[in-house]
Design a protein that fits this description.
Layout: E1 31-36, E2 39-44, H1 55-70, E3 76-81, E4 86-88, H2 93-101, H3 105-123, E5 129-133, E6 136-138, H4 140-145, E7 150-153, E8 158-160, H5 174-177, H6 185-192, E9 196-197, H7 198-204, E10 209-210, H8 216-224, H9 230-233, H10 242-254, H11 259-269, H12 272-283, H13 286-299, H14 304-318, H15 322-333, H16 351-357
Parallel strand pairs: 2-3, 3-5, 4-6, 5-7, 6-8, 7-10
Antiparallel strand pairs: 1-2, 8-9
Helix pairs in contact: 1-3, 2-15, 3-14, 6-13, 10-11, 11-12, 13-14
Bound molecules: 3,5,7,3',4'-pentahydroxyflavone.
The site of 3,5,7,3',4'-pentahydroxyflavone has 17 residues, from α2 and α15.
Length: 360
């Protein structure tokens, strides 16, 4: 068989039938994309980084999306993570930090613009876009899945938007999604970075179906045969769980329209859960918490495109704030988990500084 032209992109015209050639991805891209049966299959394949998305992976997924969208042989898209531990742990924030330290604003903007364009293309994808989430799914991984039609989680799935820990904010279109979750659930998830297990993620509305890991091979086989309805057939009912049990307290505490109001409500709650949430919020970037609260307020009134536009504008200002490089340093570079935030407390955040980050 003739090797594919190096650097070729898109489906190869006149390719012989049978096992389809890889759609475009060179092995170095961190993804692979191929047609199996009636399914366009995309594998996030950088397991040593928990499949965190770098620029090449974003370009690879975007090229595969275009090829699968335009290929009538592809009835649905199947998105998975390699390595057994993660679907996708996030984005390449170490690279973004290096670019921020180097003052390379164009590199930062280019990275996020490509990622957010992909998030929007997934929302507009005309065929089933089915993510099988059998491990860690955070940040950029939520962006690759939540805008698609089907998000199948297993008992090994852990979903979260943990950006306030690194002084970023919930992006990849989640400023559209989170304010639309029931009650104040999205505000709680965004501010605290709370991790939801598979069944809880279905309860919260981030995931659509729960299927045990042991059933994934059968589900996968049915999907390769083009049967998107197999997602329903293989789904198990979700037992009423911890999210429903917490919902009333979440709504009492996280509905406040400012961080001081949320802290006051948590203090008044006087439960172990509320004290734990307070302790978590006290570890996050105070500036990032205030940006996040305001972003979700605005996101509730915008469409997805408007949210992604707001997020992209924020990446420019927020990555220039000292908390961002410090947060990535503390969590992902030095891993001392001892960030020194500027200002150091929520009470010391100047509302005018938050407005300035939004460009008001
Ligand atoms: C908050 C985040 C991220 C995070 C941890 C946080 C994030 C992200 C990663 C991550 C994890 C593993 C990797 C990697 C990145 O961790 O966005 O390259 O191998 O991408 O507390 O927002």
């Amino acid at each position: 068989m003739t090797p594919a032209t190096p650097g070729a992109t898109g489906a190869i015209p006149g390719a012989p039938p049978g096992p389809a050639p890889a759609v475009p991805a060179a092995p170095a891209s961190g993804i692979s994309a191929r047609i199996e049966g009636a399914a366009g299959c995309i594998l996030l394949d950088r397991p040593r980084a928990l499949n965190a998305l770098d620029a090449a992976m974003i370009d690879g997924v975007a090229a595969a999306l275009r090829a699968f969208r335009d290929d009538p042989a592809v009835q649905l898209v199947l998105l998975e993570g390699a390595g057994g531990r993660a679907f996708c742990a996030g984005g390449d924030v170490r690279m973004v930090r290096n670019a921020a330290l180097a003052g390379d604003a164009d590199a930062i903007e280019g990275f996020f613009a490509a990622e957010y364009a992909l998030n929007r293309a997934i929302a507009e994808f005309p065929k089933p876009w089915i993510s099988l989430i059998d491990g860690i799914c955070m940040g950029g991984g939520i962006g690759l899945s939540v805008h698609g039609s089907h998000r199948v989680v297993t008992e090994h799935a852990v979903l979260a938007m943990p950006e306030t820990a690194i002084a970023l904010f919930p992006d990849v279109g989640t400023s559209f999604v989170l304010p639309r979750l029931p009650g104040s659930l999205g505000h709680w998830l965004a501010l605290t970075g709370a991790r939801l297990h598979g069944a809880e993620a279905v309860e919260a509305g981030l995931a659509t179906h729960f299927t045990p890991r042991e059933d994934l091979p059968a589900l996968r086989a049915a999907l390769l045969a083009g049967d998107a309805a197999a997602v329903e057939a293989h789904a198990r009912p979700v037992p009423p769980g911890t999210v429903a049990a917490k919902a009333a307290a979440v709504d009492r505490c996280f509905a406040g329209n400012s961080l001081p109001a949320i802290l006051a409500a948590l203090g008044a709650e006087n439960t172990d859960w509320a004290r734990e949430q307070l302790a978590i919020l006290r570890r996050m970037s105070p500036t990032s918490l205030c940006v996040t609260r305001e972003l979700l307020r605005r996101g509730g009134a915008l469409d997805l495109a408007g949210c992604l536009h707001t997020e992209l504008a924020l990446t420019r200002t927020v990555t220039r704030h000292p908390d961002f490089t410090e947060g990535v340093r503390a969590v992902l570079v030095d891993k001392d988990n001892a960030p020194r935030w500027t200002p150091p407390t929520i009470e010391a955040v100047d509302p005018a500084a938050i407005r300035a980050l939004f460009g008001d």
